Amino acid sequence: TNCPTKPVSISFVNAFPVILLDLLPAKNGEEATMQFLLELVDILTNYVRKTFDRSTKVLDFHHPHQLLEGMEGFNLELSDQPESLEQILVDCRDTLKYGVRTGHPRFFNQLSTGLDIIGLAGEWLTSTANTNMFTYEIAPVFVLMEQLTLKKMREIIGWPSGEGDGIFSPGGAISNMYSVMIARYKYFPEVKTKGMSAAPRLVLFTSEHSHYSIKKAGAALGFGSENVVLLSTDERGRVIPADLEAKILDVKQKGYHPLFVNATAGSTVYGAFDPINEIADICEKYNMWLHVDGAWGGGLLMSRKHRHKFSGVERANSVTWNPHKMMGVPLQCSAILVREKGILAGCNSMCAGYLFQPDKQYDVSYDTGDKAIQCGRHVDIFKFWLMWKAKGTVGFEQHIDKCLDLSQYLYDKIRNREGYEMVFEGVPQHTNVCFWYIPPSLRGMEHNSKEYREKLHKVAPNIKAMMMESGTTMVGYQPQGQKVNFFRMVISNPAALQSDIDFLIDEIERLGRDL
Amino acid sequence: TNCPTKPVSISFVNAFPVILLDLLPAKNGEEATMQFLLELVDILTNYVRKTFDRSTKVLDFHHPHQLLEGMEGFNLELSDQPESLEQILVDCRDTLKYGVRTGHPRFFNQLSTGLDIIGLAGEWLTSTANTNMFTYEIAPVFVLMEQLTLKKMREIIGWPSGEGDGIFSPGGAISNMYSVMIARYKYFPEVKTKGMSAAPRLVLFTSEHSHYSIKKAGAALGFGSENVVLLSTDERGRVIPADLEAKILDVKQKGYHPLFVNATAGSTVYGAFDPINEIADICEKYNMWLHVDGAWGGGLLMSRKHRHKFSGVERANSVTWNPHKMMGVPLQCSAILVREKGILAGCNSMCAGYLFQPDKQYDVSYDTGDKAIQCGRHVDIFKFWLMWKAKGTVGFEQHIDKCLDLSQYLYDKIRNREGYEMVFEGVPQHTNVCFWYIPPSLRGMEHNSKEYREKLHKVAPNIKAMMMESGTTMVGYQPQGQKVNFFRMVISNPAALQSDIDFLIDEIERLGRDL
């Protein structure tokens, strides 16, 4: 193996090959199993070590057809006959080799970045336990951890005594879908049994900058995407409350029923926080459900310095909060939190007696399966619980504050720098720093000309393609409304330092200089 | 540590404590990180070893209040301040100690059992890679593995050249939900934008023995659970096609629109397979969508001996198939497979330009995010792909055949044994063996008497409670329709042997003898 310094690899490296049938549950399979797992761990820890090494690439890019054709013996095709375990370990090494190091200090491409060692340990344990959140019976410890953690999150939101409801779901889109379902159940419970025809035409409201999952939920749940009304925002991407009220009145005048408002707390592109208190006033006035999508912003609730951006969140009826984003918990870890206790079960339970037996010897109120839209449910809680234990609330706070400081560092560095233009003015509310890099060849041009816009639109994709080909760093780009492609830098990676920000800027300039 | 035979533990056991801040990404954090991870691996491999050891308990049962009060220093509460890494490792050990060994050869409680070593290795790697199925850009290898594996599964279903569509979802309930959404989109695409009011009253049909997720999908997606019509079954739990046709005609006569039939291939309790070909005839006649819920039965498609139970499956429009059940893949791993190519994207895409940039340097048709109802999506494919590589198709076949043989062994053993009654006659179609154990005190009683039924109803829960308290084995029970509580034995655990079946029967008799 390529890891000479680690004690584990030496002791069994020559013992291979073992074969699949030697592994547990085979009789006397312990030794072979331990050998195999430790050889794998050697590969994994080597990957972990390299992930944090700035001298390694973030990725070794290949096109789909290249990987499909087979890279140096890495064959993705499945066959009828088994491979040797030695080949399996080679496959594992190759899988990592041709992947993307999302924990690399210079990987800034997604809202979820970083590789938290405690979170990783939590995932390894979770997969070893290989159980299901379905009932207390088969996941007693994890079910209680989920309950305690959700309560803690509700306390942090500010709901009295942390009372309420909630569940971990397979991601923010599903959590947001839950919020729409619950809102509908609260106001029109008969839709559960009779369908949408039991309700008037229901309308959902969300920012034009919000995540597409609200619209997707509207389509999936039978509202129709046209009944998801997009709200105008200010230049910073925050919903304009007056626009919300005007659109509610418009909908009412048409005879439709305004049901639900989503306030985004940390928008995907700008990192904008909608003004929750003002939106809550309007929701109260019109008796509407207020959901706060804090999938991305939620982590800021842990920071005494930044949680004011969530001012009013305790007035929300439901909140989405993804620890797998800003808090660095491995994917997947998303919570939907609800202020009213019992409403999740009311909304979703089908009382399947063959799955949830009421006559067990323990308190079956701990069986959570029937309040989910899932049946089997992956254990997403343990890694998060373990990280919370290891860091304490203060550790999460330090991480959040550090990331926001780094984002401020980037903002300060480029806002007056030659060749940069900010997409919106002012210090970003979250770690999102949105900017155009203007190559020298474009700097003298008229900004409003079609030619300039067309050329600028291609700059970010071109630089990004070169970044990926060279594998040095990764950062996202996208257009937004009338604005042509710009870079969206986000920082949630605990490994990132100021020097990595400097590197990114140098790299953009190196790659973009001659465009 | 308690694992003296393993080489890894010896070299660093005395090096603790390191502290959290010593771990990567800390400068020079490699050594501490490796120490911590290897100490964890020591705990995990020790757990793996014990899982397969029949002299250990399946579980060490405690009531919720006991675990909440804290067991010998195992404190579930979260706090502001961090714990030491030494305590973190103790927490990991305790989490496993008070959990349930779902891979134990005598754990028969769920449809998902077993601990496949290759699958475990796959999960460890997946969590180390910690990425997201969202785009090719950040998960190139995994995205291709998913594509190839879905194609292979479609070939096995029997769709020409394996063409079609599909995605891995977070479980069978979500996969079934997809099928309903796609069916609606196929026949009434305008519901996506205009909502359910753009369609007539739509009706879904599914067996009274089917999984509750179809009804749940009906409620969630705006059909209403009353518009999910339950079909009568024969005494073996299989849908009666004539009943389906009669109910379709009844619905049509009322002016509603029959949209969708779910045929269950392996029902949760009886393991029944609905007659797909006869149902397909009816679906064709009335121009309806045919979904096959093979969440539990899907594995049988891998067996030349047993796949005839799926006869007609190639006529389905969509199929749910959970490798995390009968095929022993770690949770979560569920696929929704669709015959018509492109329809998933048609149904779910919102074309969010800020998330899926069309101007990338690679072929963006590999970006799968917009066809999912999720945004971020956990990598569920790798462990499955790796197991397939290691076992080959033939290895899955052997596993399936072995489990069905074991179930036949159990059936043969108890069908004429004193004190047992089968819930339905004949060899089970799947590994589900459903039976009552009749304690000696009940054997002379009139079976139709209320007293007998009430007493028998309590037998399985009582035995199960004693099993859990003693921790020797676990098997499920439930009532079904008018039938009082009975045991449902299922075998998907690759570690189970005939002697474990014998043990279960002995244990039921030991615990139930004096009831």
TrEMBL record, chains A, B:
Family statement: Belongs to the group II decarboxylase family.
Molecular function per GO: glutamate decarboxylase activity; pyridoxal phosphate binding
Gene3D superfamilies per the UniProt record, alphabetical: 3.90.1150.170, Type I PLP-dependent aspartate aminotransferase-like (Major domain)
Cofactor: pyridoxal 5'-phosphate
SUPFAM superfamilies assigned: PLP-dependent transferases
Source organism of the structure: Salmo trutta
Keyword entries, A-Z: Decarboxylase, Lyase, Pyridoxal phosphate
GO CC, one annotated term: presynaptic active zone
SUBUNIT field: Homodimer.
Coiled coil spans: none
UniProt xrefs under InterPro entries: PyrdxlP-dep_de-COase, PyrdxlP-dep_Trfase, PyrdxlP-dep_Trfase_major, Pyridoxal-P_BS
One GO term of the biological process aspect: gamma-aminobutyric acid biosynthetic process
GN (gene name): GAD1
Name recorded for this polypeptide: Glutamate decarboxylase 1b
Sequence positions bearing N6-(pyridoxal phosphate)lysine: K325
